[in-house]
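Hi support team,

I submitted a single chain yesterday and got back a structure, but I'm not sure I'm reading the token output correctly. Could someone confirm the output below corresponds to the sequence I sent? I've pasted both exactly as they appear in my results page.

Thanks,
R.
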Amino acid sequence: MVPQTIDAIVESPHPAPHIVLESIQPYLLARVLTLYQQGSTDLAASPQCHCRLEFDSLSVQEQDSTVTLEARWFIDYDTANIPSTRIAFSDQIAPNFDNVTQTIRPLRTFAFDAAAAGIVSSGVHVVEVVIGETTGFDPASTTLPNRAMKQGFTASTYKFVVDVHLEQFSGQCDGPTFSPSPPAHRVCQ
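Hi R., thanks for writing in. Yes, this is the structure output for that exact sequence:
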């Protein structure tokens, strides 16, 4: 006989939330998303227009519906480049005390705007969402600034690859003849 350990199974006091894959829109499941920053008619428009990607209709599942979650969005996160570790967008996901069996909660839409993100050249970029309990993020971490979790907490991460084209193209990013739409949307400001 082989001796077996009889250690108790220890569940994490704060299990990781996870993105509900079925909630991700098919247009966001492409291996690489494409963003054309500006069409030929956008530069001449008044007010001036440009295009952005919208990460919408995402949901997260957390077994404890009474905890507050936070979704932190990052663009090209790289610990060797401190400015890239800043949070591009943060979304507090409120608890639900009225229906404790409701374990799935929606995330607010994140609008990825290349100009607002400071992207100055065409190329591939990584957009990430990190979701965890708000109180679980470790603000003192120097190894993973703004995304490390405290002991006992676990976050969930999902990545999107975006090919950004800053050069103009004919047409509009969300016109009927432009195939990657949605999640591309034209905004005028």
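A quick pointer for reading it: The chain has no helices and eleven strands. Let us know if anything else looks off.

Best,
Support desk
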